[in-house]
Amino acid sequence: MELRHLRYFVAVAETLHFTRAAEMLGISQPPLSQQIQRLEHEIGTPLLKRLTRGVELTEAGRAFLNDANEIVQLADHALEKARGMARGISGQMSLGFASSVAFGAPVFDLLQRFRTRYPAMELIAREENMALLMQDLRDGLLDAAFIRLPCESSKAFNLKVIATERMMIALPAGHACSSSGTIALAQLVDETLIMFPREVAPSLYELIVSTCLRAGFTPTRFIQAPQITSSLGMVGAGCGIALVPESMCCVNNPHVTFCEIENNTLFTDIAFAWRRNNPSRTVMHLLSLISQ
Predict the structure, then answer these.
(1) What is the rounded CA–CA span in Å between residue 171 and residue 243?
(2) Domain 3-87 is in which class?
(3) pTM assigned to the model
(4) Per residue in 49-70, pLDDT tens?
(5) Rg (CA), the chain
(6) Mind telling me which Pfam families this protein's record contains (predicted)?
(7) Bigger pLDDT: 178 or 209?
(8) CATH of domain 165-268
């Protein structure tokens, strides 16, 4: 039994007319009649009663129609699903997010546009620190990732910068400098600096430390926070100050104040990263939206 035989039978059963069914299928009427006869012969019972002006279903035909319809619909669904996945417009895409990009509006504006353009695509998100993201992307556990630069290990991947952010100073509310709009890093020489672990994002870590050194501020008093994002909670608790991306200023913590850095040269990029070899069409669709 071939799938086309089921399609032919469903067309005849729905129109109750061989000629109209043949027109709908785009074939001539005699071959259609022959294929239905072969189907009935294979099943071993008539499915249709031939009348002067059309046909009607036999009892066996009515029972067979329900299952035949379901099989045809499942086949059509499987076909469209396979074609959609091949074109990168359906299926799944696993995306990684560095914890510190979770507040970046450009990232989520991009994902919203992607969801609007490709509603059949399921996005599976995973938030990790930079080191784990790069490893998962390298191992094929992620299709792509939104990361924060600088990042030494990112050089093994294709990168597309989607936003550049200045770093800001996060101070405990009520700090002596919290009412200032702009602060020189040298003013923080006696402050405890809350930093994420060096292994989380070594290049960004080194950038922050070197910028402090150039400003004449030698950060000797450190408290370690698990992530850049968690440092804000520690700032609010009065544990020290932190240098964070500007997008984190959207965090509504009444115990934290954000100030700009005087003569600021400390910037960080949010980038889209993907493997260089054989990127999926879905990744290419997302990349095209970034380019727009």
Answers:
(1) 9
(2) mainly alpha
(3) 0.65
(4) 888 788 888 888 888 888 888 8
(5) 31
(6) HTH_1, LysR_substrate
(7) 209
(8) 3.40.190.10
